[in-house]
Amino acid sequence: MIHMISGGATEKDSGRARKAHGRRLENFEISRGEDLPQDPIIGFGPEDLRDVVTPHSDTLVVTATIANYDVARIFIDNGSSVNVLFKSTLDQMQLEGFEFEPVSTPLYGFAGHAIPPLGQIVLPLSLGTDHRRVTNMIAFTVVDTFLAYNGILGRPALKNFRAIASTYHQKLKFPVGKGVRVLCGDQKVARRCYEGVVRRGGKKITCGA
Question: Is this structure's pTM higher than 0.85?
């Protein structure tokens, strides 16, 4: 299992771009208040636990809309430096009109093993429903490997949506206008995926929708 993902083409796929990304903090200046987005305050409280089975240590797994497909088993991972879409998921979507770009920077899992990406694709990702839905164009790194999820939303996607995740409360919250939208996790799916991977030793399993 990959518990943390690093590497990948976070911005541009070159050593020079990665070095420039690291140097930005050296020239960072504290932003003035008027330059900051006026988002509503996002918090978590006891009411967020009403539909959560506790105690638990479940991952946060949600359903999101990617390129007009409702994709279940999306793992919210604050530890991932990239957003990941697995080749098996992309193949099922049978997309047309989206450019697939090559990527040379490998991904590294928790144990340090390198995983070569197939490329990168930018797709519309929607969180929420109806008039409270928010859509952003998100870059996904595509890999041909097994994991129990259909995709991973890492720090880049969470930043784009200005979203805050709480695995304990099994909620992903993000601003919509002057309000806050809540996306709930699915504990049953999270547990089936986790138990299946451990039991089968990484062989492909079906976790359910």
Answer: no
